[in-house]
Write a structure and sequence with these properties.
It is found in: Membrane. The protein is mainly α. It contains 14 helices and two strands. A two-stranded antiparallel ribbon has the order 1-2.
Length: 470
């Protein structure tokens, strides 16, 4: 098989695996009449393919630069500053690479709308169904982290005026309304506001912690232990959970794929990914190192509460929009997958019909409710993200992309020494995914069990403040 390459406005596919010609199967990826695209253009009905690459990059930014940035400083406390920084750089590099693999595979096998469609290409119908379920579970969990983060913000702004679960319910209803906006293009303005909201909120906290003599949560008189370590000494359970948390902060790349189907020029996908991940990596590294250096073990999770009461309210007031938009995007992406699966090849997919709208609202409501239930059941911010990172993102964002690359590059196995090394490194990528899935899930489950046992979590659906502050 040959490596997929770009040729003008065409995407040259990997070697054909059946008698159908590559032109018939793929055509021009940007041809408005392209029958292999999920959403058609110029044929009446709802026009979905309207997103430019800059807008796509901002959507990607909001998907990635969201709740993850609020947990990395506390993960660094467990690992230490140096291993924490290596984890940030290493995981974000891998996440960027696997995002490119997924985009290239999608553009070489046109007609794929989601990671589940790509799984079907390499593993058949059963692979599609399994990956589809993993995809939905993944974005239900990270959607829950957004709902939970928004409830923490509302708690902080209102001085815990009502039960936390009521704030979660308010957050869920808001997220459902926002996520029900039908097209990525129409929520592009939300992503701009959402990204700036979280970025500014985190920046305020970064500045705020450096102006204090000691962390806000530390004893304000007498000697105290800052808890800053260049190299930490965590247990396996704590270490793997923290590594999974950092990995999860940039692993939502499978959410990029539905956006490609709504891009005017799908071949511009790589530019959008590189811009997004460069900003994310630089921001994560600088913000988390500064907050951990000044707060040590007294860092809060989410980290917006690390600089004292006043700055906490300011940061959450500004960041609330971003937290809601994050959850909105996660729910929207998962609902769009369900929507396309249900109505694909139906006239209702791009028709403003009762069936079209009722299916769409049914998908967004279902995902919103599931996220609310998860947020109430595991009400500790770090553990929600670590669970997503290990249980679902590891196979979805590392394992499957590794196999997608192997599927299109079998010729590397018997090529030059360099090609052979590259080929087997992708098997190593799959092995890393397996280790993170098994080891990380065990670590998170054990920490959740311990949290219930020692009273850190009182009970599911309780009104106690389980903000997860360290």
């Amino acid at each position: 098989m040959t490596l997929a390459t770009k040729t003008g406005d065409e995407i040259a596919p990997a070697a054909s695996r059946n008698s159908t010609s590559s032109t018939e199967r793929y055509g021009k990826i940007e041809n408005p009449e392209n029958a292999t695209e999920v959403f058609k253009t110029g044929e009446g009905g709802v026009e979905f393919r309207t997103v430019g690459w800059i807008h796509a990059s901002v959507i990607f930014l909001k998907v990635i630069f969201a709740t993850g940035v609020l947990t990395i400083p506390s993960a660094m406390y467990v690992l230490g500053a140096f291993p924490g920084a290596i984890n940030v750089l290493g995981w974000q590099a891998l996440n960027t690479y696997t995002a490119i693999i997924q985009g290239n595979f999608r553009n070489s096998h046109a007609g794929c709308h989601s990671i589940a469609d790509m799984a079907e290409k390499v593993g058949g119908i059963w692979a599609r169904e399994i990956v589809g379920i993993i995809f939905l579970v993944t974005f239900a969990i990270v959607g829950a982290s957004g709902v939970f983060g928004a409830s923490v913000a509302l708690n902080a702004l209102s001085n815990h005026a009502i039960c936390t679960n009521y704030f979660m319910l308010v957050s869920m209803i808001t997220v459902f309304i926002l996520a029900s906006v039908r097209k990525f293009e129409k929520i592009a303005w939300l992503t701009w506001i959402g990204f700036l909201s979280v970025f500014i909120a985190v920046f305020i906290v970064v500045v705020g912690v450096t102006t204090r003599d000691r962390p806000a949560a530390a004893p304000q008189t007498g000697d105290f232990d800052l808890g800053y370590h260049v190299i930490g000494s965590p247990t396996f359970v704590a270490g793997i959970t923290s590594a999974a948390t950092i990995f999860c902060s940039g692993a939502g790349t499978s959410a990029f794929l539905p956006v490609i189907s709504e891009m005017r020029k799908p071949r511009d996908y790589n530019k959008a990914v590189y811009l997004c991940m460069s900003i994310v990596t630089a921001s994560y590294l600088s913000f988390s190192l500064v907050v951990y250096r000044w707060c040590g073990k007294w860092v809060a999770s989410p980290s917006l509460g690390s600089a004292g009461g006043t700055i906490k309210k300011v940061a959450y007031g500004i960041g609330l929009i971003g937290l809601l938009v994050s959850a909105c995007l996660y729910i929207h992406v998962a609902a769009k997958y369900m929507f396309v699966r249900i109505l694909r090849n139906s006239e209702h997919l791009q028709k403003n019909s009762f069936v079209h709208w009722s299916v769409w609202f049914g998908c967004t409501l279902t995902m919103s409710v599931v996220s609310f239930l998860l947020a109430s059941g595991i009400p500790i911010f770090n553990y929600l993200l670590a669970l997503a990172g290990s249980l679902t993102f590891a196979p979805l964002a590392l394992g499957l992309p590794g196999y997608l690359w192997l599927y299109d590059h079998q010729d590397y196995r018997k090529g030059s020494i360099l090609k052979t090394v590259i080929y087997y490194l992708h098997w190593v990528l799959i092995a890393i995914a397996a280790f993170m899935t098994v080891g990380g899930t065990y670590g998170v489950i054990q920490q959740v069990i311990d949290a219930y046992a020692n009273g850190e979590i009182s009970s599911a659906f309780s009104c106690a403040d389980n903000s997860g502050s360290s």
